[in-house]
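Example 4.3 (complexes with small molecules)
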Amino acid sequence: MPTAAATSRRLEQLATEAGLAPRRQALLKAALAAGLPTGRDENWRYANLRALDRQVFSAAAVPDAEALQLAAAALPAALEGHARLVVVDGWLSTELSTTPLPAIVTRLENEDALSTTALDDAGASPTTTRTPATPLRAASGAPTVDLRFAQLNAALAPQTLSIDLPYGSTAAVELVFVATADASHSASHPALQLRIGDGARLDLVERHLGAGAAATFSNADLRIEVGTQARLRHTRLQQLGPRSKHFDTLRLRAHDGAECEYLVVAAGAQSARSTALLELLGREASLRWDAVSLGDRTQINDAFVRVEHIGRGTRTRQAFRGIAAGRSRLAFNGHMIVRDSAVGAASDQSLKALLAGTEAEADVRPQLEIYIDEVRASHGATVGKLDEQMRFYLLSRGLDPATADALLKWAFVEDMVARIALPALRHQVEDVMAAQLHTVIDTAELR
Amino acid sequence: MSTPLLSIRDLHAKIGGREVLDGLTLEIGAGEVHAIMGPNGSGKSTLAYVLAGRPGYEVTSGSVSYRGQDLLSLAPEERARAGLFLGFQYPVEIPGVNNVYLLKAALNAARKQQGKPEVDAFEFLALVREKMKLMQMDEAFLSRGVNEGFSGGEKKRNEILQMLVLEPTLALLDETDSGLDIDALKVVAHGVNTLRSAERAIVLVTHYQRLLDHIVPDRVHVLARGRIARSGDRDLALELERRGYDWITGAAA
Ligand SMILES: Nc1ncnc2c1ncn2[C@@H]1O[C@H](COP(=O)(O)OP(=O)(O)OP(=O)(O)O)[C@@H](O)[C@H]1O
Ligand SMILES: [Mg+2]
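Answer. The structure with adenosine-5'-triphosphate bound is encoded below.
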């Protein structure tokens, strides 16, 4: 497979180009020397690394008026009570964001930062002195290849958006990453670092949108630190365009008693790979990870979620629901690790995929790596077709097969979003799912 | 004699490679209530499923005519829209699809077939409320997932509720009485009785004569080893209660 080699060559070229700061060049070279992931790497078997073929990696320029206009048109209705931050092709747009920017938000110009800060060897993005970057390293023991895209982001992201919630505060933020630049001449590398102070609460909605029908390439990097007794509710929506290619890396560390609730919906992109490396470091830190992946046509969507239980009594509940239609390929790899320090940890995984197309593929993989006896761990994984009994029950009531199938598919994923507290957000998420499923039913009637 | 509503002739059907219906013949006229009894595993549910068109049941020979139409050539949903209703022995739970949605979709599917417009939202609600009252069901059931977490008896009531909303021409009720407490049995029986009319027929599959005290059948049949081994009037049910099935199944062998 020439993929990795050709991609490396292009990146090397980029590294030697004038205009790329020496620090960035060094980062790129380090990433290349360590090697890009290939299909032979354990956690990258299902990722579409062909998405890197012919990809131009240079960061997109500051968006011009036309790009901003495209981005503005792509924005969904604002969410009540949420400050909106819009990042276009990796650049924070103050025009499209809430004005003035909330005090908790800082924009870090990486170019400046590069010359002043030391870099972590695992390749975190450069940071300023104001906010020490949150998880800089790979979670202990994670193969560093899983961080390669984060390293590329560190080398190429024009800015890092920093959100810092002080002790005991509450905020709601909608973060919209829009990709407009065509992949044939540049890429979008958005970066976020987020620190939720002790006892603080954050509702975070993160969207990845494509503007127009552009064939975009994005590589996002998020680093999150959740303080003691802090709570994060994070809704991630990948609703990029049908020609988009997307990679993202999320690193999270949760301290004592922190509660992290995730809902991840992957829908639009032609190809997406999401890497999440999550550390439950503090005692009783808890994580809920609900993920929905909807594939159609020839879409490829791959997610790798590694959860490391380190603190005593840490808990994870993970659920995945995927529907693979057409000739799409879905994969979800949930890797649970329980360290010997995590006495009384609990982990529960329920991973289910539905094959809705004769040529569709789905792979769900729960992995347990446990170094201690005192653990409660359960997991279930199934890949199947629509339930024949349910289907016949609906048909026997006179519903036509298309409606019955649509209802059952909807029912399969709906309970994942039913918990979204904010009705407007829930409806938006449902609309994204309904559109992706080409559903023939009026989903509003099912609320 | 007018043509019967349902006419089953020499029906043979297989499930899982096994012949379960073995030359079953049965006629049901409009306005009639028939009870089908018989030992466990004799093929009662199989007959109901074959009539409703459940996939996996292979009819190897014989015919079924319903209102003069070849029933077996219709898809399951077409049978339902033509007025056939199956009350399941084990109603299926469908989390995520709420009851009221299913009721409405089912009713509209039937109305569409009859060339009628979609039911008006207010009319529909009034209709459902009336039927729920009849079934002594709390309205909270409407917003719950279809049969999701319903008790055994609640599921059976829900089947009858659907039947009352859809007003089928031919209702096949497969052990709708099993798992019902004494009061619920009366409620369900009352629901079924309200549906009785000159143009409809009802087939009750049951193990218990008790149900037939409340819904008095015109005919009682014993299904054994895939065929009707004996038919009679309601006294046959009383006799079965006393004597069991051995004297019939033995004779049928
Ligand atoms: N999928 C299947 N594969 C093989 N055999 C089956 C299958 N489904 C049903 N059968 C068999 O067919 C026979 C008839 O079953 P059926 O459910 O029709 O019986 P029944 O008369 O309704 O019994 P009960 O009174 O217990 O409800 C049984 O022996 C049953 O085991
Ligand atoms: Mg049965």
